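Lay summary. Proteins are chains of building blocks that fold into shapes, and those shapes determine what they do. In this project we predict the shape from the chain. Here is one chain we studied, written as its sequence of building blocks.
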Amino acid sequence: MTRASVQTGLDILCTSGFSLLKNKRVGLLCHPASVDSKLMHIIDLVLQAGLDLRLLIGPEHGIHGTAQDMEAVEHSTIRPEAIKVVSLYGDCLDDLKPKPDDLEEIDVLVVDLQDIGCRYYTYAATLLYCLQACAQASVAALVLDRPNPINGISYEGPLLEDELHSFVGEFPVPVRHGLTIGELAGLARTTIQNLDLTVVRMKGWQRSMWFDQTGLAWVLPSPNMPTLDTATVYPGSCLIEATNLSEGRGTTRPFELVGAPWLDSNDLVLRLRKTAQAGVEFRPVTFRPAFQKHAGAVCNGLQLHVVDRQVYSPFIVGLAVLQAAKQQVPEHFAFRTKAYEFVSDRPAIDLLTGTKDVRRALDSDADLESLIGQWRTGLASYAKWRREFLLYPEDDE
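And here is the predicted shape, written in a compact code that computers can read:
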């Protein structure tokens, strides 16, 4: 394996001999991608170092990453069995946050999560909830930073509206935010009183880097995030979750495939090609998901092929796909109406986009370009505000 040019926060912690954790009772919030550059998992590394590991916390999908989205994860067991294991994804809203007694036996909670650079990705909310719990319990938080896999300079989409906070949107950032998880932790610190936070920075990471430029091996951070290609399209294709279209779960190309039994693949692609989206090609496909929406049914739709990721705008493309599908078959297309991430009083599409405007625009068949233009002022303000939280300089500095 090629030697990594980037050292993650975990790599730096290991190199220091875990000096920040000596003589501390330790808890870990981690998942399958919590590995060092040699692919050793943080749990094994901490145990090998002889540290006093008392608690393991698993985010959505679980510590082992075996659960599908919105699938409850039970408190599991792990060797040695004496270590307490807590799941932060159960079957109700209260299960998303640590309970007051979950942290009572630790001095420091180590957070090592690979984020995707998108506001919807639920590890960001889990980070926030755990930092809040740490402050309330007088437990120190140690966040190990990792690369934003889709680079740290690009951001797009509307800012989150106040009334639409949820598990898929807790930070006041655009859909694609251009921050690392360590930088999100720094942002969170401004809203949490008495938080003892340390972020272990990476070495060698530059904001313009995509994950395949880091020299690090890709490890699935969640079951339907198998490749960097998936992460690249995710900020737009995740919007499909808020509809009755399949986002390709139950196939080998989740989020790159979009379809439904009642769509016309060729017509859909022609509609999208007319929108002249930069950096992406659309190909008509037929696929059959093995599970979730339209499981076992033949779906007609498209595959997204990103041909120039530097100019590709995944969120804008996601909106275009929704509009094209709705215009083609308005009698079949529908937004999700049942509860989404334990929220039933607001539509899933509003929670994901962070605004009611997208749903209203699609329902009225409005011009998306004018809607996109309305977000530019907010993004300009965000461009200035985010600098306060950057741990790594802009590439032109």
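What the prediction tells us: The longest strand covers residues 280-287.
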